Amino acid sequence: MLKLIVRLLVCISAVFGMIAPSDISAVGSLPKELRIDYSDYNQLSLVLKKFGWLEKEFQADKVPVRWVYSTGSTQGLKDLTVGSVDFASTSALPCLLCKVQGHPVKPVYIFSHPEWVTLLVTRDSPINSVLGLKGKKIAVTPDSDPYVFLLQALNEAGLCKSDITIIPMSLSEGRKALEMQQVDAWAGSDPFISSSQLELGSRAIYRNAAFNSYGLLNTTESFAARYPDTVDRVVKVYERVRKWAIRHPDELALIYADESGISLQIAKLILSRIDFSRTIPDSGDIVGLKEVLPILVQERMLDNQVEADRLIEHFDVKVN
Fold first, then answer.
1. If pLDDT is split at 50, 70 and 90, which confidence band does 309 have?
2. 3-state secondary structure at position 41
3. What does the angle CA 309 – CA 147 – CA 67 come to, to the nearest 5 degrees?
4. Could you give phi then psi for residue 56, rounded to 5 degrees?
5. Residue 280: its pLDDT value, please?
6. CA distance 114 to 236
7. What does pLDDT average to over the chain?
């Protein structure tokens, strides 16, 4: 199993073209402290924090584990690049953009394939499709996963950004604006969308798992080179909790609800949209990231499409 985990680590590193020779003299060394984030969008991190499996893994080495809460990919990447954490949870798209910008971020593990973005309207809205959004006001957080999802949905329907009016809002503001009918639709993400659906009957008019980028656990090039054994062991523990989550869905839902402060019903709905079975990227992941690149260039979120293509050109690497 350990060999499989190591090969998995190598493959995920190759995905982003970040395989670099490790500092041989550093093999076997350990950091004085392991700083790792936990977040509501990474349910496995909540289980790890509660069970203390990372603490037990490094207990004999006397390496303490410090948990740092993350509100999203933006904060996770910031904490990682400024050195506040050693491991950060993000979605794949922001991580790719961060790497294209030259930051030494190194993905080491896929913790889930979630469907965490949806286009919602109110329960009694006459809008039933993306085409129905033409001329309407849409709430969305700029330069976010929901924002890119919205642009992809419009493009697929033959519409463009100029066909709608985008109202920039945070996730919580967007939910409130939709439910108060201040906007016609909202591109949001969980737990907000599931809460709105269950509590007020908001309707999904468009879902597409292929347009949702997956969840990544990341470290930095320097940390991975200096402490390769530590990275391997963290990945090993993540593998343990992933397999536990698949075997214990009811306990996972209880922990998720308790740790994130949401109802059990909402937790179960969110978890029903998450795939924990795949820890390496497949052809659909490759295609999904490549297809969004022209939109990112058009939106000036990405300047170098060639570099982005290079970073994801090995997404078809598989572990036997």
1. low
2. coil
3. 85
4. -70, -35
5. 72
6. 21
7. 85
- The rounded distance, in Å, linking the Cα atoms of 204 and 210 is 16
> Tokens 């698949």 appear where?
246
Average pLDDT over residues 188-203: 94
DSSP string, 103-132: --EEEEEEEEEE--EEEEE-TT-S--SGGG
Round to whole Å and give the CA distance between 286 and 134: 30
Burial class of residue 33, CB neighbours in 10 A (0-12, 13-18, 19+)? exposed
Backbone angles phi, psi at 104, to 5 degrees: -80, 55
CB 46 within 8 A of CB 260: yes
Q: Which has the higher per-residue pLDDT, 99 or 84?
A: 84
Overall pTM > 0.85: no
Q: How many CB atoms lie within 10 A of CB 247?
A: 9
The encoded tokens of residue 37 equal 């984030």
Of 56, 11, 13, nearest in space to 34 by CA: 56
Tokens of 218: 């990341």
**C-alpha–C-alpha distance, residues 12 and 116, integer Å:** 22
| pLDDT digits 0-9 by tens, 207-237 | 998 888 889 999 999 999 999 999 999 999 9
Residues composing the chain: 320
Largest CA distance in the chain: 65
Asked if residue 145 lies in contact with residue 111, where contact means CB atoms within 8 angstroms, the answer is no
Torsion of the alpha carbons at 48, 68, 6 and 276, rounded to the nearest 10: 50
Eight-class DSSP state of 133 = G
* Beta-ladder partners of 185: 138
